[in-house]
Task: inverse folding
């Protein structure tokens, strides 16, 4: 099914469906994908309002003056920022007690450190690569290489035999450097073997499958991104 059209400054505020969590998103935004993955993982009934980030509706700016996506509205509660939202969804909707992010303070700390610090550096180098910036290779292999090392003795980022919070928080960028990447269609072969294996495993995960975008569409988006003219409604 095609994603909802991205709303612009021309669109009126869409009435909320009572009782339903609302996600303000942009279909190809990796930060918003973090929220979509967590909502899918926890099976949360929700509605998506896509926002055109080049021509934002005034009502969205007034609602969340930072004016980035993702944002959620849960009854009268509003939260913005992908990690804040992801953790909130995990806390509120893990009724089965099976948390995606460990509740152990140290495990939670090491996971958040990985996502914010180590992966934070890698994100910058991924954008450099996608944007075809000069000398992207050096930073890319240095910082994404650190993630590859992280997976040398583990199947998933927080250990264990199935994806957890760290994997879902990192995936939205890693799917961009795989086959959808607008540069050369493949990960630089053989240089990041653990990450390549992890990407293949992640693609088989039901939550990841529920949120995936076809490689052709993602490729079109990436091409638009590096020419500075990305299109919002591609599907
Ligand atoms: N720190 C924020 C970053 C979100 C973000 O930068 N989203 C981008 C889209 S991928 C955005 O909304 N950009 C619009 C803008 O900066 O005006 C988060 O984790 O949610």
Result:
């Amino acid at each position: 099914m095609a994603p909802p059209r991205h709303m612009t400054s021309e669109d009126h505020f869409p009435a909320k469906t009572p009782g339903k969590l609302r996600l303000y998103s942009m279909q190809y935004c990796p930060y918003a994908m973090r929220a979509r993955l967590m909502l899918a993982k926890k099976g949360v009934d929700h509605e998506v309002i896509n926002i055109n980030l080049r021509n934002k509706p005034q009502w969205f700016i007034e609602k969340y003056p930072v004016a980035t996506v993702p944002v959620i509205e849960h009854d009268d509660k509003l939260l913005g920022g992908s990690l804040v939202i992801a953790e909130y969804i995990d806390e509120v909707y893990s009724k089965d007690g099976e948390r995606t992010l460990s509740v152990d303070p140290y495990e939670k700390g090491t996971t958040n450190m990985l996502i914010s610090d180590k992966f934070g550096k890698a994100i910058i180098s991924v954008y450099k690569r996608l944007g075809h910036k000069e000398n992207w290779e050096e930073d890319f292999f240095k910082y994404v290489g650190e993630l590859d090392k992280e997976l040398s003795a583990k199947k998933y980022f927080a250990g264990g035999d199935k994806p957890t919070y760290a994997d879902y928080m990192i995936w939205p960028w890693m799917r961009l450097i795989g086959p959808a990447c607008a540069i050369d269609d493949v990960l630089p072969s053989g240089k990041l073997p653990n990450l390549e294996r992890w990407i293949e495993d992640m693609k088989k995960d039901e939550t990841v499958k529920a949120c995936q975008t076809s490689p052709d569409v993602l490729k079109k988006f990436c091409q638009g991104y590096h020419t500075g003219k990305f299109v919002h409604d591609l599907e």
In short: The beta strands are 21-25, 46-50, 71-74, 77-80. The longest helix spans residues 105-130. Residues 21-98 form a domain with the Glutaredoxin fold (CATH 3.40.30.10).
